[in-house]
Structure formats: structure tokens, C-alpha cells
Amino acid sequence: MSGLKRSLSVVTDEPQEPLMKVAFASSDQKHVDQHFGSALEFVIYGINPDSKVLLSLAEFEAIGSDENEAKLAEKLAILEDCIAVYCRACGASGVRRLLDIGVQPVKVVEGALIEDLIDALQAELRQGPSSWLAKAMTKSTLNISRFNEMEMEGWDE
Questions:
Q1: Domains defined along the chain, listed by start
Q2: Taking the CA atoms of the chain, what radius of gyration do you get in angstroms?
Q3: Angle at 117 between CA 54 and CA 35, to 5 degrees
Q4: Is there a contact between 15 and 132 (Cβ–Cβ < 8 Å)?
Q5: Cα 154–chain centre separation
Q6: How does pLDDT run across 85-136, given as a tens digit for each residue?
Q7: Are the CB atoms for 94 and 74 separated by under 8 Å?
Q8: Biggest distance spanned by C-alpha atoms of the chain
Q9: Residue 130, exposed/middle/buried by CB under 10 A (0-12, 13-18, 19+)?
Q10: pLDDT tens per residue across span 7-17
Q11: CB-based contacts of 156: which residues, under 8 Å, 6+ apart?
């Protein structure tokens, strides 16, 4: 049986500015309250310095602790376009596999509000990203659009 129970995506016709995808391991779509490997849900937002939008929600079947390693592949496939996943904890195997696909695991305190984490990430984007975020931005379209803006401005080396 597949570990993925349901995946929902928000569909819109409105044009969107470049967004970075960020995932949150959450059982209620409001708090980060799950361990990466045993997470039953991931809420995925698209963010940039000035806006955020809910993009998708992925729900997984409950699995035994001895099955976590086998089910990581499905979770990694859902998260492969994300720059980060916020969770309560992440085992060494999960950390390694996330980093291999370019997703930064971020450990947070129990019950951290997703809204607050997004606000902090947006503030960091506006003020100048930390090293992990700057590296992650090279994976996203935000970085590409900034280089396009600089080229249009006629910058010199």
C-alpha cells in the first residue's frame, strides 16, 4: 500500500510572482508538530519577500516505525521542489536524503506557528538571507529573477 494518502493542490488563474516552496510537517496546518520521518502531513507554501500562498497539502498513511525508511522516498518526491522543510526533528538518514535533493531540514520547537515561521523567513529575505537560505535561493526562481532585473538595469562587472 502506498504511503501517500492524498495530495491536494491549490489551483489559480492569477499570475504569481516567483515563489520559493517551503514545507511544514503539521497535523493541523497551523503548527509544526511532527517529526519528518513519521509526519502524516506536509503543508507547502510558496513565499517571496512580500507574499505567501498555500500551494499544496500532502497527507500520508500512518506507518510503523520500522517502515519509515521505506516510505521516505514518497515524502522526498513531494518535497523535491522545496527549499526547506520545517519539522520537530529529523533523523540522520532523513537529513542526508533531504540535503541530497537540495532541501534544508529546519528543526523548530514543538508547536511553532507556521505563520510566525513564514513571517520570519520573509523578514530574512528582505534583510539579506543567511548562508543556507542564500544557497537554497540558487535553486529557486527568486534568484533567477533578481539576476534578470540586474541585467535589465545595465549592471557592470
A1: 4-153 (3.30.420.130)
A2: 16
A3: 85
A4: no
A5: 33
A6: 999 999 999 999 999 999 999 999 988 999 999 999 999 988 887 777 777 7
A7: no
A8: 57
A9: exposed
A10: 555 555 555 56
A11: none
